[in-house]
Amino acid sequence: MQFNIVLVFATFLAAIEACKCGGNIDATKACCRNVGGNPSDVDCPANQISERLSNFASCCNSLGSRSDCRCPVGCARNETDAAQSAAGLPLLTDAEVTSFVASYGHLDE
């Protein structure tokens, strides 16, 4: 129950902000499109990518930038579980999810 409240709260916060890959507008637009968002001139509406914030942050990192949108470990857990299941692979351990989140510069609890 507590996890659901945190997830709802995180989704609500994401809905009222926009995401950027630091000051890199080209990376922001590319990563926004990559995760299914429709970028504006300088940012990506977080409400469009609220279920893929982890992937957005990872994309920013791969392009040498850092996302300003936070994704808690629970958010990354949902994304990695879905990706692993779709690929027919075992789910990641908690340590692996934490490592994944840390790999793109954000470690939220």
Quick overview:
The chain is mainly alpha-helical. It has helices at residues 2-15, 25-34, 46-49, 53-62, 73-86, 94-103, and strands at 18-19, 44-45.
How would you describe the overall organization of this protein?
57% of the residues lie in helices and 4% in strands. The chain has 109 residues and is mainly alpha-helical. It has one domain. The protein has a two-stranded antiparallel sheet. α2 packs across α4 and α5 crosses α6. It starts with a helix and ends in a 6-residue tail after the last helix.
**What's the arrangement of strands in the largest beta sheet?**
1-2
End-to-end separation in angstroms reads 16 Å
Mass-distribution shape: globular
Q: Indicate the radius of gyration in whole angstroms.
A: 13 Å
Helical segment tally? 6
Given as residue ranges, the uncertain stretches (5+ residues, pLDDT < 50) are 5-9, 11-15
How large a portion of the residues is in β-strands, by DSSP E? under 5%
Total number of domains: 1
Mean pLDDT: 80
**Structural category:** mainly alpha
Mind summarizing the main beta sheet?
Answer: 2 strands, antiparallel
Question: Would you list the SSEs in sequence order as H and E?
Answer: HEHEHHHH
Specify the helix fraction band: 55-70%
Oligomer: single chain
Number of strands: 2
Topology:
Blueprint: H1 2-15, E1 18-19, H2 25-34, E2 44-45, H3 46-49, H4 53-62, H5 73-86, H6 94-103
Antiparallel strand pairs: 1-2
Keywords: Signal
Organism: Phialocephala subalpina
Protein name: Extracellular membrane protein CFEM domain-containing protein
